[in-house]
Amino acid sequence: MSVYDRPELAELWRLARETLEGGGRSAFSLRVEDEQTARALSELLRKPVAHPARRQISLARLDEHVRAHGSTLPEVLEAVHGEPVGLSAETEASTADAVLRYALREHGLLGRPWAAEWIEHVRRYGKIPQPALPMLANQAAEVLARLDPGRVTTRFALAGNDLDDGRPLTRIVQKALQLAGTDWERMGVLPDAYGDPVLTSQGYLTLNDVLAAREVTVVHSARLLESGVPGPLVVLPAGLTPQARRHLAGKTVRCHDDFTPDGVRRMNELLDHTGGTPWRMSAADYREAVATLIARGVELPTLNTRPEEASWDPDLAATMATTGLVVTEEHVLPSLLL
Q: Using 50, 70 and 90 to split pLDDT, how confident is the model at 275?
C-alpha cells in the first residue's frame, strides 16, 4: 500500500477532487477525527498534525507535498479514484475566471490594471489543464505579489524550477508582466544568482556576495581597475544592471564615464538611482581633456550625436556638441590617477 492508498486519507482525496472539479476555490477544510488520520496526514505533509482538529488544506500546498513524493495532485487523484480529474468544456469555461479571480484576490492583485486582461488571456490561451489551474493560478499570484523592483532576486528563489523557460507558470507570469508594461529585468528578477556578475576591486561579485566598501567609485571601463585608479572601484560596462543595483544599494557613490552620449545617459541614470556625485565630469573637465589630448597629438573620434542634458552640469551637453569630439575614460586615465 502506498502513502496515497491509505484509508485514513480517503476523505482528503475526496475533498481535494471535489474542490478541484468545483473550481473557484484554492483550499478546503478537512476534519481530523482520530490518531490514525493525524498520523497519515503528518507523513504526507511532513509536519505534525493534531487531532481532533480541523485543518485548512491549500490545493497548491498539497500539490507541493505530493510532488515531494514524486507525483502531482491530479495524478494522485486519478490513481486513487481510477479516473482522471476533469471538467466538461462548458464547466471549465464558466469556472476558470472564478479560479483566476480568486487567486488574484487572495494576493491583493485583483485591482491591478492588467488583472482583467490577464484572466481572459490565461483562460483562453494559457494552455493549462483545468485540474492544474487552481494550483498554478495561486502560484502565479504569489510570485507576482512578491515582485519588487527595488529588491533583486532570481527566478529560482521565487519558485524553484517552475519558473524555468517554457513552463506553464513562466508563461502566465510573463504575460502578467507584459500586460503591466514591464519584464523580469525591470522587476529585478535575474535568471540566476551567478550570471552577469559585477566587477569590483574585490573581484567579481554575484548576487550572493556582499560589497564590503561603503564608499565606491563607479566607472565604465575595466582599464581603470587595471591601471590602478584609486578605489574601491565598481566597473559597469553595461550601465546600471540589476546586479549593480543590488550591490550599490546603500553605498556612497561617485561616478565617472565617457564623454559620449551613452556615457552621459549612463551617468544620469546612475546619479538618479544612487544619489551619487559626478567625478571629473564637468564641462570644464571635458574642455581641459580635449585641449590636453590635441596638444599631445591624440586623434579623437568625432561626436556625431548631441548628448542628452547632463543632470549635474547644464553646460556639458552644449559644450560637447559645439566641440564635436569624443573623450573616453581611457583618454583621461593619467588625470584620474592623480
A: very high
